[in-house]
């Protein structure tokens, strides 16, 4: 016969996941005549922790709102107009932070919200896209095309005739060049993903009447394997030791790093020396050990770290001294201990010891004579003598 009962297991939530926005960059537009409290956009972030953690997320504007044009509902993520937009800059980039409230340490994430203020003047050029999202390899040569932006002007029956293009924000390091006539965006200076991974450009289209509109170009720099791994320390010297050292014997530890994206790194010895390869070992965590007894002398171990294409190097110097036979010496040549006849001693009644207190495990004690009746017992590790 059998029966069953339900068992409820309650898994306690930990705040171990960072909030995530639905996208890293948002874009929105708002008419310059929009009334105060008009909704501009809504940002959202989620949290892989239990719903209670996600519901506790709060939003705030960390930068880009110095003029106070916009307000952000800290609970809903709704961005609204907080004052008149007439005569204000056409474009704004707000950086928004989403933070959870624990439990424990608060975690956060950031996203950018690009806002375009739409002029009531219908004759201003209008971009065919409010937002351009492109990826370009960091190995792309100068002059490579990144994107083509395009705007139309209703004054010229929808054609782009007479429109001039320019980059007005975000071109740090002058990395990009925008052809003022064609809207062709190209690389002007070498890119390096390990230094800057993303650019958010604000581009402007202006007509002959100086009416203009703006759009965003988000450029993601793609990674290539162009960085050589670095091994630290570059030069290591292991403390000299005896040939009779206990094995395995730890010598040093190396670390390998690579600023490329998600590299697969492998540490190894860069040698064909049979003695090195058979007697020394380098683990995946970079720890180098001696695993077999070798001849006394000096050894140079060349260490390398490879990412599959490029190799970083280091070296380890090892000095092994000749082993010497050491004869252990007792502290006393004899130990006179009086015992009472027919009285059993339950604990050790004497402990013999060696001069110099050698390391445990390098010696052992034994009874070699005088114990014919088996009345005594000697602990081979501690030297304690029992009845």
Considering DSSP H and I runs of 4 or more, what fraction of the residues is helical? under 10%
Mean pLDDT: 85
Query: How many β strands by DSSP?
Result: 31
* Tally of alpha and pi helices: 2
Class from helix and strand fractions: mainly beta
Name the poorly predicted regions: 156-160
Strand content: 35-45%
Radius of gyration: 37 Å
Separation of the first and last Cα atoms? 59 Å
The geometry reads as elongated
Query: The biggest beta sheet, please?
Result: 5 strands, mixed
Q: Could you characterize the architecture of this molecule?
A:
This protein has two helices and 31 strands. It is an all-beta fold and 387 residues long. Strands 20, 21, 24, 27 and 28 form a five-stranded mixed sheet that branches. Strands 2-9-8-5 form a four-stranded mixed sheet, with no helix packed on it. Strands 11-18-17-14 form a four-stranded mixed sheet, with no helix packed on it. It is elongated, with a radius of gyration of 37 Å. It starts with 19 loop residues before the first strand and ends with a strand.
């Amino acid at each position: 016969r059998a029966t069953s009962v339900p068992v409820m297991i309650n898994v306690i939530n930990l705040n171990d996941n960072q909030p995530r926005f639905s996208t890293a960059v948002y874009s929105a537009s708002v008419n310059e005549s929009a009334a105060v409290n008009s909704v501009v956009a809504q940002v959202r972030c989620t949290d892989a922790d239990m719903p209670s953690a996600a519901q506790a997320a709060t939003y705030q504007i960390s930068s880009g709102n110095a003029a106070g044009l916009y307000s952000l509902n800290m609970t809903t993520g709704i961005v609204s107009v907080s004052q008149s937009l007439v005569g204000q800059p056409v474009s704004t980039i707000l950086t928004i932070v989403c933070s959870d409230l624990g439990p424990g340490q608060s975690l956060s994430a950031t996203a950018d919200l690009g806002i375009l203020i739409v002029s009531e003047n219908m004759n201003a050029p209008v971009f065919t896209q409010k937002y351009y999202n492109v990826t370009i390899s960091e190995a792309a040569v100068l002059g490579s095309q990144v994107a083509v932006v395009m705007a139309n002007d209703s004054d010229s029956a929808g054609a782009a005739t007479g429109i001039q293009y320019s980059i007005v924000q975000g071109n740090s390091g002058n990395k990009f060049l925008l052809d003022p006539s064609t809207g062709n965006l190209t690389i002007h200076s070498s890119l390096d993903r390990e230094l800057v991974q993303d650019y958010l450009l604000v581009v402007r289209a202006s007509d002959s009447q100086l009416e203009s509109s703006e759009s965003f170009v988000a450029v993601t720099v793609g990674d290539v394997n162009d960085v050589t791994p670095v091994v630290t320390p570059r030069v290591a010297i292991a403390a000299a030791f005896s040939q009779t050292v206990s094995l395995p014997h730890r010598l040093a530890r190396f670390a390998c790093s690579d600023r490329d994206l998600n590299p697969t790194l492998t540490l190894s010895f860069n040698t064909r020396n049979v003695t090195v390869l058979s007697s020394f070992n380098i683990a995946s965590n970079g720890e180098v050990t001696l695993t077999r007894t070798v001849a006394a002398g000096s050894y140079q171990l060349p260490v390398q770290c490879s990412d599959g294409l490029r190799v970083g190097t280091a070296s380890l110097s090892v000095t092994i001294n000749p082993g010497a036979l050491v004869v252990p010496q007792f502290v006393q040549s004899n130990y006179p201990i009086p015992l009472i006849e027919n009285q059993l001693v339950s604990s050790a009644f004497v402990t013999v010891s060696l001069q110099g207190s050698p390391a445990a495990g390098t010696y052992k004690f034994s009874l070699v004579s005088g114990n014919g009746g088996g009345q005594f017992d000697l602990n081979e590790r501690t030297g304690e003598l029992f009845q």
